User: What shape does this take?
Amino acid sequence: MYNSYETVASIIKTIPPIETFLIDAELYYAHVSPKNYVKQRTPETLKEHIELVQQKFELLVEKHHLDGIIDNLINEFLKDQKITDTNEIGLFIKRLFVNVIIFHDFGKINENFQANPDKMNNPYFKGKEKLNSPISTHHSSLGAYLFIVKQITDAQVSVDRQYHSTIMLAILMFSYCIFKHHGKYLNDEYKDKISFSVDEVNCMKQYVSHYQFDIPLKNYEILPLHLTKAFNELESYNFFNSFALYSLIRLNFSLLTASDYLASSQYMTGIEISDMGVLSSNRINQLFDFVSSSDVLKSDQEKKNYNKETYKKINTGYISPNPTEQSNKNLNALRQAMAIEVIENIRANSLKNLFYIEAPTGGGKTNLSILATIELLHNSKGRINKVFYVFPFTTLITQTYSSIKETLGLNENEIVQLHSKAGYKQKEHVKFGIPAPEQHIDTKQLEEEKDGIYSNEKENYIDNLFVNYPFCLLSHVKFFDLLKTNEKEGNYLLHRLANSVVVIDELQSYDPTHWDKIIYFVHTYAKLYNIKFILMSATLPKLGNLELIKKDFPDEFVYLLPTAKQDYFLNPNFSERIKFNFDLLERTEISLDEIAQILHTKSKEYSQLDFGEAKPFNSVYCIIEFIFKKSATNFYQIITELNQHESLFDEILVLSGTILEHRRKEIINFLKNPANRKKRILLITTQVVEAGVDIDMDLGFKDKSMIDSEEQLAGRINRNVNKKECTLHLFNFNQERIIYGQDKRYQEMKKLKIDDYKRILREKDFDFLYNTIFTRIDITHNSDKLSIDNHQNQLKHYQPKIKNLKFQSVHNDFKLIEQENISCFVPVSIPIYVQGVTPSANDSVFSKGELEFLEENSVIPTANMEIDGEEVFDLYLSIIKNKKEFIQQKIAEKTLQGIMSKFIFSLFASKNIENQIVHYSDEVKSEYGYKYLVFWREFYDIKFGLDTKRFSSSETQFL
Assistant: This one.
């Protein structure tokens, strides 16, 4: 990544101040204080606003090192246009990019906008309004018009005529950013927006003289009227065919709207945001030194930093002993060997952008990714300055958040979670100041509220909105939305992705229907935005091997563990950590009663083994997983009755998708608590336990579903190789095709011979399956004999939408999750903390900030130290009905989102379930986004979850 053209800063320096060319510039307002503010601020002039937006724009470009990214996109666009001599035209387009930010509010000189009481209410323009003006009080279209005619004129003077079509395309598409900078979306119909009627042109051309632009008559009168013709000509010659232009427009829109928001917010609140949430070179060095040389972890001075020993062995000629005898010591030796290999391979390939980490379950993938990330940051010398971790499950986000923070020694101001359950992130020393409903407010408090919220809250809100944290953990849906969204607020963050490390975990969990689009975006953004992508999993599909991708992209992925299969996967410490037992799969039919009896017998036999503290005599931890909640419910009743007659299990626990978060946390802590290791415990679960649940079981039983799901559950058994004879028994009870029938993985898996299925699991040869899926995707890609739906899902039909700038279609036609859910709110009382992993420790359910927020809104813990769900929902209704000042409102809503998630479970949406769940709901309260289950006691239990027997439904409704 390099700078080809002048920097943004140098271009801005060449632009004269607006007062040197706008007549009476000092008379025009850009912003005024809202009417309901007690402390009115002096109106902000157009000159002040434009200069402040320039400053924010320049700051964002500097902090995120965007000059090289912009130049790279321009060069790629010109390459798509088959232009080889890029100096002259490339520099002009770079200046266009900057001028969008300068021109975006030039239309505010519209007298109607200035005089309107609901706009600027500028007394100077009272009586100067233009009645029946075709542009009314609008300013964006006028600003776009002025931009177009001025840039066309400048191009005619400074750019070779042979580049006319390319320049025209760039001018028109950049003007769209000005048109839409107050809108919510970029649409497909930009041609309809970038057009003017005769009346509009006759009106708007009068404003050209206000700016003293020397515009030939034909430019400001004729050309804008013929923009549709210009678009048609550009389309007929295929000038739109460019991913780089698509991304260049979105990046420009991102920077324009972000700079405009930051500048406007600074005027409104008086708070200047200068920390853009990036890592400085000095901070990166500190993090690297901590990881590589600290003796202990900051979070717990008693915890040893094992990565120090790893770094000691780097460059010392260390050779992995590759121990084959099973033991926890040897497992750790293999983990260290993998860490050393990852570090050395990153150092040897630090200029590359695409990496695979394929490591066996229990191999410490998170730590390997952290080491790879800190190496990439350190080797970039500050050029790479932020990190995104992408996960398919919120449980993985929560678990990894703590691990990253602890391993790197990060403070709370450097890391954030972005998902529906995370709520509102408060930086340290920030305290809520939102008055409770109906609380007495004295005059001083009222003034502060009317003027906005307290300074730290205003700053905190902006940090949340723009995710000003160098480490961000987010869901895969949210991340891929950043790459393709047409929504203004989502697009704010696009510029943050540049020059970052992105770690994508559990890639195999994504629907193969989208694998081609996923890897296409990964390749293009890695190249154009200088993003270091690390794709990792124990069952990793090497998406770069898709032939349809290889046509456009060479295979540039670096395998950070290139011989992982023979060196690690097949090492007995991993491959023989558990045994797969396929005996029950041979049965064509098997009942839950039979499964219960076998599980009971096997558990009783295993309980008699003694492996010391890891598994004392007369104890057993057994897990059984079903595809559907109904099957888990039925099994629970059967095994409970059996256990009453033949007492074995001390505890029978249930974990499913309808279990609330605090109970889930309670169960996991119970299983991890050393004091319980002497007990006999059975955990009945659905597939929610497969990833992101850090438990260590002895035996497993699983209803066969997807082959990578089988491996995931195996990863929850004998995780530390400190036991023997650990086994996962596979059986076939539910019809997995009901859920997975359309999944390419399932379709190819069904074609496998049973011997191949067994071999893949035993030898960890998941490539054998994935390569058949790749072949099918490639064949489908080359076939035209498909349904319309399949056509829409293909990359070859999706990619043209990107290149033809169909912003809305690009977003809508690629959804990682299509399934709609019903969110059910259970008004139970939830404890503010549950038992921790050790008897002396408590694990918080509500954060300190959440409790403060609730207390300030008169929701306080009960005598039993619980939060009443009914009070929480009433607070929710109060806040959404009694709107506060904008930022206060957004903070309250986001904070409540995290709090309310603790009372919510989701069901697959269907008319059948909706018609039944309504009988348990409060109809009035359920009008506000959630089904409020006022009669929850009739079908719901905190420890067991939803009782599926109370519903008439198919198995598939409850997971």
Q: What stands out?
A: The mean pLDDT is 89.
